[in-house]
Write a structure and sequence with these properties.
Layout: H1 3-20, E1 38-41, E2 45-47, E3 52-62, E4 82-84, E5 89-95, E6 103-105, E7 110-116, E8 124-126, E9 132-136, E10 139-150, E11 154-159, E12 162-172, E13 182-187, E14 190-201, E15 207-216, E16 219-225, E17 233-236, E18 244-250
Parallel strand pairs: 1-3, 2-4, 3-5, 4-6, 5-7, 6-8, 7-9, 7-10, 8-10, 9-11, 10-12, 11-13, 12-14, 13-15, 14-15, 14-16, 15-18
Antiparallel strand pairs: 16-17
This protein binds 2-acetamido-2-deoxy-beta-D-glucopyranose (NAG).
The site of 2-acetamido-2-deoxy-beta-D-glucopyranose (NAG) has 4 residues, from strand 1.
Main location: secreted
GO molecular function: pectate lyase activity
Cofactor: Ca(2+)
């Protein structure tokens, strides 16, 4: 091969690697980081399609607050702190308590080393139509209800995440955008104090696969019958080995 061809071949390999690159690594950390300053956003900050945003471990908050009591929230994109377009990534961010809706992912996204100090309506909402979004490292606390709300379809892949004092770490929407098949993976996750780690609609083919994790003071799975409208019904709290598969999940963390 000529030098030009070798160079072309190597850049091809580089591009192929970027396409299929695994989610960036972030270790499991069980202490919330101290912010290196605060940034107040008067409106939602958009991360454009395919772009990456590194917050440098600063706290990003909304001012005025968009967390105005759970009942008053509409769940709209404008109340979020960050809105990630298709293929966008966010890393090294601490979200403040005044953000009503945390992060909204409009397509596949990557969330790496992101911390929610006091979750309002939810920490992140996933609207992707297919494919996988990745959460690596980071943590969340103080969620009255949900941390990761999956309203679209496809897979949410969570690893090395820490949570305390939350309602659900993950919930596939029980009564919106249904029927839709949704999947969640949790690997090396520690949760101290939770209602349900993974809430899924088994009747729509949803699955939850939880491995090498610790879930203390709470249920591993909430198996629900999802609905197109009205209230979904929960019928089990236990892994059934089919819709919810838990392997090596400890209960004392
Ligand atoms: C951000 O806004 C809050 C009120 O929501 C205010 O107390 C704080 O001083 C502001 N911080 C900065 C860095 O502007």
């Amino acid at each position: 091969m000529s030098l030009a061809k070798v160079t072309l071949f190597l850049s091809f390999l580089g591009a192929a690697a970027a396409q299929s690159a695994p989610a960036p690594a972030a270790p499991l950390q069980t202490t919330f980081p101290t912010p290196k300053g605060t940034v107040n956003l008067s409106k939602v900050k958009v991360i454009a399609a395919g772009q990456s945003f590194d917050g440098g471990m600063k706290m990003y908050d909304r001012s005025p607050s968009t967390c105005v009591g759970l009942a008053a929230l509409s769940g709209g994109d404008k109340e979020a702190t960050f809105l990630l377009e298709q293929g966008a990534s966010i890393s090294n961010v601490i979200l403040g308590k005044n953000g009503g809706e945390g992060i909204h992912c409009m397509g596949n996204c990557r969330i790496t080393n992101v911390w929610w100090t006091d979750v309002c309506e939810d920490a992140a909402t996933f609207k992707q139509k297919s494919g996988t979004s990745f959460i690596r490292g980071g943590g969340a606390k103080g969620a009255a209800d949900k941390v990761f709300q999956h309203n679209g379809a496809g897979t949410i892949d969570i690893a090395n995440f820490y949570a305390e004092d939350i309602g659900k770490l993950y919930r596939g929407c029980g009564n919106c955008n249904n029927p839709n098949e949704r999947h969640v993976k949790m690997e090396n996750v520690i949760i101290k104090g939770v209602n349900v780690a993974a809430g899924i609609n088994a009747n729509y083919g949803d699955t939850a696969i939880i491995t090498n994790s610790c879930i203390q003071d709470g249920d591993i799975c909430g198996l629900f019958t999802g609905v197109t409208k009205g209230q979904p019904k929960q019928y089990s709290k236990k892994p059934d080995g089919k819709s919810c598969i838990a392997t090596n999940v400890r209960t004392t963390c």
